[in-house]
Amino acid sequence: MKQSNLLLPTLKENPTDAEIKSHQLLVRAGYMRQIASGLYSFLPLGNRVLRKVEQIVREEMDEAGATEILMPALQPSELWKESGRWQTYGLELMRIDDRHSREFALGATHEEVITSIIRDEVKSYKKLPLTVYQIQSKFRDEKRPRFGLLRGREFLMKDAYSFHDSFDSLDKTYETIFNAYRNIFTRCGLDFRAVIADSGAMGGKDTHEFMVLSDVGEDVIAYSDTSDYAANIEMAPVITKYEPSNEEAKELQKVETPNQKTMEDVAHYLGHSLDKGLKALMFKVDEQLVLVITRGDHEVNDVKLKNLYDASIVDLASEEETKQAMNAGFGSLGPIGVPENVDIIADYAVQSVVNVSCGANEDGYHYINVNPERDFMVKEYADLRFIQEGDPSPDGKGMIKFARGIEVGHVFKLGKFYSEKMDASYLDQNGKANPFIMGCYGIGVSRTLAAIVEQYHDDHGITWPVQVAPYQVHLLALNMKKDEQKELAEEIYETLKKAGIEVLFDDRKERAGVKFADSDLVGIPLRITVGKRADEGFAELKYRQSGDQQDIYKSDIIDTVR
Ligand code: ATP
Ligand code: MG
Ligand code: MG
Ligand code: MG
Fold first, then answer.
1. Distance of CA 182 from the midpoint of ligand 4 (Å)
2. Nearest ligand, CA of residue 444?
3. Which end of the chain is more exposed for a tag (fewer CB within 10 A), N or C?
4. pLDDT grade for 162, boundaries at 50, 70 and 90
């Protein structure tokens, strides 16, 4: 490809809205452009990388015995009503009406559609197990689209679904796909960990996430330094200290809490506790605001394990909400309103959050010298515990360390959830109808691309691993006005193309400095520069990652590049 013909708009400055490297670099290096919040166009180079990641995914999925299909992104609401998710999926599901006022969703995921297809087309156990996948755009109206491709509102996902007549069969496929995922992320050059995704309700072995280790990851992983143990601490929501301004506090007083307690009650706690030297703090736990009453003598700015032993979380949720929160793995935190613009001051990994009922505003109870058993009804006090670095890992084989991770893949044993709700069954050997047992397996293809950039960049730009690079070779002719340079570069270009090597040829009439800077930014693994020694038939090779360079004679290039 000749660069003079390519849409490759590089920028000198980072886009102002880009907070993290992958977002900055993919825009600056001309791989993509934003069209609206969370929506991106892939320009030619971005598209090439996306196709490469996709191809790796495709090859490994095929190898795992899955076959590719393509389902519509537009899905009728009826299917989502059958599964119940039309109600439960919430605001993330993008919904639209057609001209006849029929309701549709833009696919956030495809369990409903695939279940309806298999329900109609697979009748017998003889067809099982069966695994299909697709690579397709998904739509999710994320509350906070951010970090470029890491959290988009339209993004490319590989989603796979498997159907079985026994849990053993599901286990086998799960393991096969699990291994395929290992291969995929290894081939992408990523430093990743497969982690237990929900060690609570799911018992830990029915769902795993693949996490790319990165400081910009939104998940916290607790892993063992010397064994395979690793888990997502989703029980450890991001906790944010939040102190309402006086005005906000007044506003909050008008807000009704879900269990009918008004914020006046909350203010009462607040005022009461502050008067008596206790601290009432508001934390944001995931999307929920939580009131925490602590003893005043603790600096809660760096609440850690021990401090929180002394803190109590006032449970303002109704029992039903508490139950839901518990099921979702949060512990029992009551929502009391969600103000925007909350600053994150610290993240913690919490194993579980204490579940207490507040009694301190009743006569005879008080916050001074607060006594958990007397002043609060404590239901699960001992569970209030942070996992800390250095703790023994649950498998007993190592010590816990923390890392941040980007969730690039997720494998999940669904069981009969969809097949029962949607009445999808097969006939077994005895002619008896049974609901399918299912698994689902996702990979964020566009997110993976960004995760690669998070792990492969330096001060000058992207440093792609060769397997996913847009081109293998970046050929630069430093001065296209010099005949000997132009001719040698063109000769090398033709030779490389003939040998089936993907080469981008910078044939632009730009200054050498511009070409070098752009080349570093774009990050193709190997650069071949034709410059001063062109008349002798020599060019310069430079490896983008290591910076190693050497002069090379034209006829030696092919062997070296291969
Ligand atoms: P997250 O926890 O980051 O919101 P998720 O658990 O909601 O992700 P899944 O439903 O498991 O996502 O979807 C499968 C994969 O799709 C994820 O592992 C992730 O790689 C990718 N993905 C999910 N949401 C997004 C998004 N908004 N932008 C880009 N990729 C996404
Ligand atoms: Mg999500
Ligand atoms: Mg997740
Ligand atoms: Mg997930």
1. 16
2. 1
3. C
4. very high
User: Tens digit of pLDDT for each residue in 244-277?
Assistant: 455 544 544 443 333 333 333 433 433 333 333 3
Identify the three-state secondary structure at position 363: coil
The CA–CA distances, whole Å, from 488 to 96, 512, 555, 558 equal 57, 16, 11, 14
Q: Whose CA is nearest to atom 8 of ligand 1?
A: 407
What pTM was computed for the model? 0.78
**What is the per-residue burial (b if ≥16 Cβ within 10 Å, else e) of 416-427?**
ebbbebbebbbe
* In contact, 178 and 195? CB cutoff 8 Å: no
Ligand 3 geometric centre to CA of 407 (Å): 7
Q: Which residues contact 556 (CB under 8 A, 6 or more apart)?
A: none
Token pair 């849990």 in the structure block, residue: 167
Residue in this structure with the two tokens 């009743």, named with its chain if needed: 362
List residues bridging with 151 in a β-sheet. Answer: 146
List pLDDT tens digits, range 469-487: 999 999 999 999 999 999 9
- Of residues 98 and 309, more confidence is placed in 98
d(CA 9, CA 255): 49
Taking the alpha carbons at both ends of the chain, their separation in whole angstroms is 19
Token pair of 472 as six digits: 């293998």
What's the ipTM? 0.99
